[in-house]
Amino acid sequence: MPTLDYLINERRQLRLRFLQPGHAPRHGATRVSEVVARPLTEAPHTLADLSADTPFENGTLFLVTLDTPRPTPAHVRTLDHLIRLLDRRKAAGLVIGTPGHDLSTLPDATLAAANRLELPLLATSAEATAWAHVNEDLRLRRAQFAERQVAHLDGLLNRLPARLADPTAVRRIADWLSVALDAEVLVTSARRGVLAAAPDSAPAALAHAVITGAHGAQGALSGAMHTRIVSISPGAPGTPGFPDGDDEARLAIASHAPFDSAATALIQHAAKLLGLCDQARREHQARTQTPRAVRHAAFQLLMRGETVLAQVVYTGAAQALLDTDTARVFVVDTGPQEREATLSWCERALAEQAIVSPCPGKPKHILILDPVRESDRVETVLKEMIAAREGHLMGQSRPHPLAETAVGYLEALTAVGDAAGTPHRIRLGGSKAKFAPLLPRRAARAWAAALMSPLLDDFPGRGDERKLLLETLPTALSFKHTEAAGGLGVHRNTVTQRLNRAGKILSLDLRGSANDRILTLLALDILALPHPEPDADTPALPHPHPDPDPDTAAPSRPPTFAALMAAAAEDGGPTAWAEERLRPVRADQRDLVETLCVWLENNLSTRETARALGLSEATVRNHTRDAAGLLGMDFSTKMVGITDTDVVTVADIALALHVLLGRPALVQPPRP
């Protein structure tokens, strides 16, 4: 929209200026829609012809011409009357023209009256011909302004997401606003920090303005920056119904060019839309995150066999879901697509029929616990969903007692890893991925407890240190130190120090001996399994470390590793398991089995393995990486906990090779 500044700066032939210099910053942005020119003697009569309640068109600038180079007392009286009339008509301003002459100042009383009424006074020495086409130019500029406004609003509406709670909506609007205004755009929250920034340099450019709340021109390395800061939080902080009243969200914009009326209007529209998106996002989180946290807590309790506690936690109308003897577990892998959309769909479609929870350790997995009922509706709904969503996979467990949810999860997790090779991308679990569950439970637990007793029962240090070591061992023994450090959130040197400390306590070489690493991982896997029931050698309540009681006490002398393996081999289960586990690598033409055996026999050293096989180190790395992938090692796992029973580690690969081929030759570590 054209303004007084536009007429002064862009239409130089009009020789227009403010009579009072202080009016430029106050009234320069005043919009001008048309210019009405009259001789001063006729101007009051022109206004008097209009109805008293009829204003000019919004933005009318009134131009009066004097027939003398300076106003006479009669002119001054007429001007005073005209100023009052123009104020009532809401005019954009009054221009006093003295063609060919510069107007000398008006009387102080006249200037004071205009100031009091906030009517800008301007002067011009241009001839009347200079104003001949000004209205045509103003109409053209107004049309261009309207077109630009329409284009901006259309672009803004096109960024309106299908769901206001879409987590990408704020970023998309900020990106577009940055391009539309050629400006730095930052959306921040008092508690949540930066919500969106465009370009990436915006936080640094706008940091001072956001902290101080300053508007206007701010200093910057590249020159003066014009800033605007607008609250996008609906309502007022601290008022009833205002979510997170102390978490005000704000839109900050910085540009080298001043913001005209079009830009200001666009900023206001964008702020309203951003506010709606932010409010919808927070309301969506309030509706979904709390119930989701309850479901997650219940699922985790079931994974540990704490069925009673899970029923206590999972209160509400769906509590009857846990009033069941058996259940089955589904694991949905959303693949490259965002998990949130599928998770929300499952929560709605399976409400009060199944427990749906995001997997905390795997960002693409969704866990569903289905109580076994007469109806198969949960299975039917999930199969239809997998068929409709390309790229999704699903693994399904067999029915298990509710206390053995962890076993069902293991089956479903193993199955989803193989689901891509099936026609419908769905696979039923049942074959065990890990070795520990195949061993006689009481004997295995006694062996594992004896191996780990220096750390679990006879620990020489503080309780906090034991907790740290137990949290470190599964991850540190399963991955390289750099990867383990990333998963544990510590420095790799810290991982090394903890391994050295744990090895010293256990009298094991956990860094240099593959034998000791494998047996320690096996012991941790065994201790993560449910306790054996009093009357049967079957899983029951899980527990992370042994806490024997009179009913479940192990034999006084624990078996050796060789005796444990011999007892397990009596029914042929380990051999069948090993053949199934190694089938993918045995079918590979590169003799990956031999590479794995030599790699394990050389304590996982790539260099020594390459030397023994006469291959390059790069080839050995490729072979071991490909073999691990074929065998189901989960390199995306960031942390392995002591209660995890699903993660296939190097120990499972080594144990399968040992059972089938006798390589590597695993032996019981001697005790000092």
Automatic annotation (TrEMBL):
Residues 469-525, 592-636 form the PucR C-terminal helix-turn-helix domain. Residues 533-558 are annotated as: Disordered. InterPro entries: CdaR-like_regulators, PucR_C-HTH_dom, PucR_C-HTH_sf. It holds the Pfam family HTH_30. It comes from the Bacteria. This is PucR family transcriptional regulator. It comes from Streptomyces akebiae.
